[in-house]
Specification:
about 350 residues; mainly beta; Neuraminidase; 2 domains; 5-stranded mixed β-sheet; 1 helix
């Protein structure tokens, strides 16, 4: 009993000392890593090709600035103000690293993220309705594309998703291929006699022969919404304000953010590429935006509210969705989910635009 009585206080004291030391170590560790910001943005966002202003908390020698892994020549209006020319027309978020030597000659750095917005006010594009054709009200349209003189359409909904070849002037479905019931079909495009069809949440893209037979499937790791292509580069939307680029075998090639003069343009859905621009339907709106593929800036917009059919069964779901450009006719074809009509439009000066003429 004596032995036990002696050991218990001793053990208690040892545990108390160990806990005290651990707390000191944790406190020391926290104090070592917590410090005030070296650099802060004067404004949270800037217009494309503007000059970014950074405020320093203390003067720095040997100042070095990296903007998305590119060294930038910065200027100092005073010891605590750094001016950084962006020299970029591409919109979106950029990583900005400020580094240098502080008073004790130790190296120090800070990482910021700066948003670059568009400096362009989109043109309001004017159109004329040329012809109205029948469209199957059973087609929950997700993708639309002309190829080899024929019109192809992809539809959605579980158990109703299909890929079809359609006669555009009559709306007659000439050929159809159902997707497995577990897949929700999305955008389509056709490259080198191969048809690609996205799925919404399955992460699978089906590739078909022109006879609508599946010959390969690919994996991707975003939601699938809209799909188009430039040459052999696939362009995918996922409902955000981002466009993603892939090889024909779905190897990622990077991406692009989309902005207009008011900010990021989200809910990008059905896509169509024509002459350096992507036309993108903004989901749940009657708006199609014209995106410059080099910068991500919206340079034009098309309001198609007057084309929305009356007495839709479900106006919230049966929205504008379906864009196809017929190069031979220089005409734009549009429709919507379960719409009874396919519209042929002539859009004035659709691709005759110079970005520099649109700057704010």
């Amino acid at each position: 009993m004596k032995k036990i009585g002696f050991c218990l206080p001793f053990i208690f004291i040892c545990c108390w000392l160990a806990q005290s030391c651990e707390k000191k170590r944790e406190s020391s560790k926290t104090e070592k890593h917590v410090r005030s910001a070296i650099a802060t943005l004067s404004e949270p966002s800037y217009v494309s090709n503007d000059t970014i202003s950074i405020k320093l908390s203390e003067p720095l020698d040997r100042l070095d600035v990296m903007l998305d892994d590119k060294r930038i020549q910065a200027f100092q209006s005073d010891t605590l103000t750094v001016l950084i020319p962006t020299n970029t027309s591409k919109v979106g978020f950029y990583q900005l690293i400020i580094s240098g030597l502080h008073a004790s000659k130790g190296g120090i750095s800070d990482t910021l993220f700066v948003e670059i917005r568009s400096d362009i006010k989109p043109r309001h594009l004017q159109y004329q309705l040329s012809t109205t054709y029948p469209h199957a009200t059973t087609s929950f349209t997700q993708g639309l594309e002309f190829y080899g003189g024929a019109l192809y359409e992809g539809t959605g909904q579980h158990g109703q998703s299909r890929l079809m070849r359609v006669e555009p002037t009559t709306g007659i479905i000439m050929q159809s291929k159902d997707l497995p019931i577990e897949h929700f079909g999305e955008g389509i495009t056709i490259v080198n006699d191969k048809i690609y069809q996205l799925t919404w949440k399955s992460g699978q893209c089906f590739r078909y022969t022109m006879g609508l037979e599946v010959d390969k499937t690919f994996r991707y790791y975003t939601q699938g919404w809209g799909l188009t292509h430039k040459d052999t580069t696939l362009i995918v939307s996922d409902g955000s304000n981002r466009l993603y680029f892939y090889t024909p075998d779905f190897k990622p090639l990077g991406g692009l953010s989309v902005y207009d003069d008011k900010g990021a343009v989200s809910k990008l859905n059905e896509l169509e590429y024509v002459d350096g621009y992507v036309l993108a339907n903004v989901w749940e709106t009657n708006r199609i935006v014209q995106v410059d593929l080099e910068s991500g800036k919206v340079v034009g917009e098309l309001n198609l509210t007057s084309l929305v059919p009356k007495n839709l069964i479900d106006p919230q779901s049966d929205v504008l969705n379906g864009i196809a450009y017929n190069h031979g006719e220089h005409a734009l074809y549009v429709t919507g989910k379960n719409w009874p009509a396919l519209y042929k439009l002539t859009v004035k000066d659709l691709f005759k635009v110079k970005i520099n003429d649109l700057a704010l």
